[in-house]
Amino acid sequence: MTIFAPRPAVDDRLLPFQVRGKALLFIIVLSLGGSFQMGSNIALFSSPTPFIKSFINSSWTERYGEAPGENTVTLIWSTIASSFAFGGLFGSINVRWITNHLGRKRTMIWNNAISFVALGTMIASRFANSFEMIMLSRFLFGFTSGLGSSIQALYLGDSSPKKIRGMVSLSLALFSSSGKLFGQFMGLSEILGQEDWWNILLSIPAFFSIIQMATLRFFPEAPRYLLIEMGNTEQCKKALQFLWGPGDYKLEIEEMLLEQAALRGERSKTLLELLRDRNVRWQLLSLLILQGAIEFCGISVLNLHSFSIFQEAGIPVDKIRYVTMGLGLSEVLIRITCGLLIDRVGRRVLLWVGFAIMAVIMALMTLTLELKDYSFWIPYSTVALIFLFVIFFRGGPAGVMLLLTHEIFIQSYRSAAFVFMGILIWGGFAVLGFIFPFLLVTLKSFIFIFFSCVCLAASLYVFFILPETKGKTPLEISEEFRNIRVFGSSTDMDLCLETKL
C-alpha cells in the first residue's frame, strides 16, 4: 500500500516527488513563521550594526547630556545582540507547555501575534529614541524564532509519511538558509542597508508572519497529533488526504495506532521526566554529543571572522558582502541536494561523513592560516576551505539534527525533547559568545585543531553507536536504541559498545 494514488509505469523512486495534495504549499507557509524567519532575523542584524551603535550613542547623549563611554556602548550593544538568543531560549523552553494546550496549528498562529508586537516596538524605537525598545523587540523576535522553529519541526514531523519524512523535515534547514540569504540581500546598501532604514530592515521578518497568519488557518492540524493525542482517526485521515492527496493511508494510520497503544494513554512528558527516564538515556546522550559538536565545530568562528579572512585573501572590501552572499547561495543549493539524498543514503551517512570531512578541513585550515604569508595562493585556499566547510556542515550535521530529534522519540517524549534541543541550541548560542573570545586569544589559529578533534569525535560516535532511523517508525527506532549495550565486569575494564545498525 503506497501513500500516493497509483499511477501506471511510474518508477516507485519518483513517487515522493509526485505528491498531489497541498503539502508543498503547506511546507512553504509553515516555514514563513519558522526557520525562514529565524534565518532572516539572524542575517539581518549584521548589516545595520554601525547604525545601531550610532543610534545608541546619540540616544544616550540626548538623554543624559553627555556622550557614553566606549565600554557603555559596547555593553548596550552586546545586550541587544544577546537578547535575541535569550528570547529564542525562552521560546524553545515553552514549546511543550504551549503546544500541549493549543496544539501545533493554533500555537503557530498565536506565535505570529507576538511578531506583530515586536514589529511595532522596533518601528517605534527610532522615533522614541529608545535603545531599550530595540532590546525588547529583539527579545520578542528571538522568542518567536525559538518557538516557531520548534513548532515547525514538530508540525512537519507529525504531518509527514515516513517514506519522505527526511526530505520534508529537511525543508527546515533549506528555509533557514534561504532566510539568511534573503537577510543578506535586504541588508545591502542598495536595498535597505542604510542609516535611515535600519528599524525597517530589522522589522522585515514580521511581514512574513502576516502572510502565515492569513493562510495557515486553511490547513489542518498535524495528523499524528490528531490521532495519537486527540484520538480522532477520521480527522487524521482527512488531514493526510488534504496534505498528500487521495488515499486510505491504512499503513500510516495503523502505525499511529500502534504508537498510541504503546503509550497506553500516557500523558506528554515534562523535561524533568524526560531527563530522569533511563529508557531514553541513549537518545539524550546522542542529542547532547551531536548538538554539542555542532556548536563547537567552528562554524561560529567562521561566521565571525570570514570577513577578515576574505579581506586577507585580497578580495576588495566592497565586494566581500557579495562573496558572503555567494556563501549563502551555496548553503541553499546544498540544502536542496541534501533533501534529495537524505531518504536514499540515510541519516547516519550524512552525519558521520559530514563530521569526518569537516575534521579534515579544520586541520587543513590550521596549516593555511599559519602559512598564509609564505605564498599568495594560500589565503585563497583558506577561502575555498571555508566554502567547503559550510557545504559539508549545512548538507550534513546541520541539516539532519532537527529531523533526528523528531524521529528518535515517541509522541509522549517528543515535545520535551524539543525543549531539551532548544536549550542546547539557544543556550549554546548565548554561551559561545562569551567562551569563544577567550579561546581565540589563548589558542589563536590552533583553535581549529580543537574544532577538528570535536568533529572527529562526533563522526566516530555516529559511525560506531548511532542507529539508522531512515524508513523506521518511532517504536522501531526506540527499540534500536534499547539494543545499544555496554558490557564490562569488575575485573575487566575494557568496554565493548554494540548497536544494531
Low-confidence stretches: 1-19, 488-501
Number of separate helices: 23
Strand content: under 5%
Distance between the termini: 26 Å
Q: Given the C-alpha coordinates, what overall shape results?
A: globular
Major sheet attributes: 2 strands, antiparallel
Compute the gyration radius: what is it? Answer: 23 Å
Structural class based on helices, strands and sheet pairing: mainly alpha
Report the helical percentage: over 70%
Number of beta strands: 2
Spatial sequence of strands, sheet with the most strands: 1-2
Mean pLDDT: 83
Order of helices and strands: HHHHHHHHHHHHHHHHHHHHHHHEE
Describe the structure.
The protein has helices spanning 23-32, 35-44, 49-64, 70-93, 95-128, 131-157, 165-169, 171-186, 198-201, 204-215, 223-229, 233-244, 250-263, 271-276, 281-295, 299-312, 317-345, 347-370, 378-395, 397-407, 411-443, 447-464, 474-482; strands at 485-487, 496-498. The protein is mainly alpha-helical and 501 residues long. The protein has a two-stranded antiparallel ribbon.
Structure described in brief:
The chain is mostly helical and 501 residues long. The chain has helices at residues 23-32, 35-44, 49-64, 70-93, 95-128, 131-157, 165-169, 171-186, 198-201, 204-215, 223-229, 233-244, 250-263, 271-276, 281-295, 299-312, 317-345, 347-370, 378-395, 397-407, 411-443, 447-464, 474-482; strands at 485-487, 496-498.
